[in-house]
Amino acid sequence: MTFGKRFDALTGAGLLGLAGYVYWEGSSMPQAAKGLGPGGYPVFIAVGMAILAVIRIVQALVRYVRDKNAAPTLTLSRGAFFRVLWFLALVFAYLALLPHAGFIPASIALLVYLTHFYGYRRLWANVLVNVVFTISIYLLFRHFFLVLLPTGGLFG
Amino acid sequence: MSLGYFLEGLISSFEPMTFLIMFLATVAGIVIGALPGLTGAMAIILSMPILARITPAQALLVLAAIFCGGMYGGSISAILISTPGGPSASATLLDGYPMAKQGRAGKAMGIAVFASFIGGIFSSFGLLLVAPLLARLALSFQAQDYFSLSIFGLTIMASAGGGALVNGLVAGWIGLLLSTVGVDGNMGMSRFTFGFPSLMSGVNLLPVLIGIFAMSQLLENAEGLLVAHQSLKQDLKDIWPSWLDMKRISLSLAVGCVVGIFIGIMPGAGGAIACFMAYDIARRLYGSRAKFGSGVIEGVAAPECANNACTGGDMVPLLTLGIPGDVQTAVMLGALMLIGVRPGPLLFVEQREAVYTLLAGMFVIQFLILFLGLAACRVSPRILAVPPGLLNPIILIFCVVGTFTLGNSLFDVKMALVFGFIGYLMRKFGYPGAPLVLGLILGPIAEDHLNRALLVTDNDWTTFVTRPISCFFLILSVLSIATALYSSYREAKLAGKTAAEPAGGRG
Q: Which of A51, A134, B62, B159 is the Cys-Cys partner for B484 at CB 3.0 to 4.6 Å?
């Protein structure tokens, strides 16, 4: 996946759109006779953001005019990006599972899988370290910091 | 400076619990600083659950110990595996790694510890002498001055945060925008909450900090398989520098101390700039007496002394004005705000005991670094052999638990994950994370002071340029942007020249 000058211009356009929305929202809020009122500060931010967006677009256009064959801003490996998305999906699934399964089982499962995912291949050491770590963290937070991590159905 | 307060602070820092916490924080700072891919900012974030449960004085000491320990720890991996633990150790590898290749890693690490200690002691003196004076001066600031100071803080962070200036400013402005989410302080009207009740109290700082600085790093590490770093086999004897070594590096130490403290106090410039500047100045001053780059102890001492001399200087604008100088101090600012300690001139009045415990504790921390650093020289190959595949998931759980403890809410953890992905994309596209966090921190302060200034002056916007201190900060803001633009223009021109030269040669 490559991202070049067009991406920079698109970022600028997106930012300009966001600035427009914030300006519109801020302007429609009640005005104060003196001082800023609730909308004054968002309007102030929107104006600054619009200026930055215009600079971003102009920069992208100038770069395009100067060198039409310039190297892309960023090249992302598709495989690496999918690994990142998979990691994110796993952690979201873990968070969804946490209240039901409880901290200890859900965390051990996630940790053992992620340790393998990151490239550590010694399974028994992986399981041992992560079981000891998870239980220690649970006990530390429960008894020392007095924070009750989700217990789920197992201990609830 | 009052000697009485300082002595009281010194006694407080030797209380058993405080000393133990400081000791453990220094160990954590050195270990995390030594591991490539884990930054001092991450170490500070991981300490959050502890910070919330100790006194403000102890919290300040923990942050300072992690900061200073991490600054030294970066040199270990720079010397042993040619990979600096953080940007501030980048110049250390120029001579440290060649020394390791010659089998003299023990000597290189010994010099690094000694230089770090000297730099750290010098920076502690700087902090002790300069910070209270600046804080007294800052007590005369009014609303206009604070607003302009916030803008200045944002511009320096944008220009120094890495990447292009416009990217830094965009990130900072997004941070300001995020700070407007929630119920406004004037009329109690909800802004940009999109119907989420959890957003009524605003975007919490902790999930953003954890997301932008810690989770984004874990996501970046997830791009591929991680392998443990293998260091060269070393004979770790002869670590402590001899008298002759100390004589040889004395000029490097002097350069490092002066450059470090000067760069540190300047907001926006941090250890990374100081280490290269000190290395370059020392190289010129030594001339033919030391062949820099070939593995000389003078080349290790100058940058290591400079980056540690920076630590105290970095904390001057943070503590006195509430303006951080680099990413780590930005995270420190966030951490302090979360535990209810608001850096600024009033800190020296409201939390005098805590501040003087920090000022005195900084000296104790340097001795801890010397002691622990010498011990770390012996075990450092083992520190670096910790499999990153095991370490990264454990850090993830620390992030999850740390965020959860904020309000016993999984919503905050999900927010941290979302900001982690945003932070990952920002890293990829060259948008620095620090200005975003700083924008979120400074946003409400800037709004409050802007509102007050306009109320007092009947909506007279010229008050920001007619009040001298405010005008001074606005001029500094413009200058910091102009300087950043000029240096990026020069870099682009230089890059163009370098690219054109080989082509010309062929033609």
A: B159
Answer for the pair B320, B131: CB distance below 8 angstroms, yes or no: yes
Residues shown for chain A: 156
CA–CA min distance B477, chain A (Å): 14
* Contact predicate B207/B406, CB 8 Å: yes
Q: Nearest-5° angle of CA B3, CA B7, CA B12?
A: 145
Residue B443, domain member (yes or no):
yes
Torsions phi, psi of A2, nearest 5?
-115, 145
CA distances to A95, A107, B32, B409 from A102, in Å = 10, 8, 29, 14
Which residue of chain B comes nearest to A150, CA vs CA?
A: B408
Q: Both tokens of residue B444? A: 């409400």
pLDDT tens-digit profile of B294-318?
A: 889 999 999 999 989 988 888 888 8
SS3 state at B171: helix
User: For B163, which DSSP code?
Assistant: S
Of A77, A118, A150, the CB nearest to B226: A118
User: Does a structural domain hold residue B325?
Assistant: yes
B407 touches B300 (CB < 8 A): no
For chain A, residues with pLDDT lower than 70 are 1-6, 68-74, 153-156
* Tokens 């690496």 -> residue: A80
Going by C-beta distance under 8 Å and a sequence separation of 6 or more, which residues neighbour residue B183?
A: B189, B190, B191, B200, B201, B202
- pTM for this prediction: 0.79
Parent domain of B464: 3-232+249-506
The tens digit of pLDDT for each residue in B167-181 reads 888 999 999 999 999
pLDDT in tens, B359-382: 899 999 999 999 998 888 777 766
The b-or-e profile of B88-108 (16+ CB within 10 A means b, else e) is bbbbbbbbbbbbbeeebbbbb
* Residue at B143 is within a domain: yes
Instruction: Say how far apart CA B494 and CA B492 lie, in whole Å.
Output: 5
Number of A–B residue contacts, CB under 8 Å: 160
pLDDT at B506: 39
Alpha carbon of residue B491 to chain centroid: 25
Kindly identify which residue of chain A lies nearest to residue B400, measuring between CA atoms.
A95
- Sole residue written with tokens 């620390």: B398
Chain A CB contacts of B429 under 8 Å are: 3, 7, 11, 73-74
In a domain, B393, yes or no: yes
**CB contact at 8 A, B205 and B338:** yes
How many structural domains compose chain B?
1
Query: Distance between CA A4 and CA A70 in Å, rounded?
Result: 8
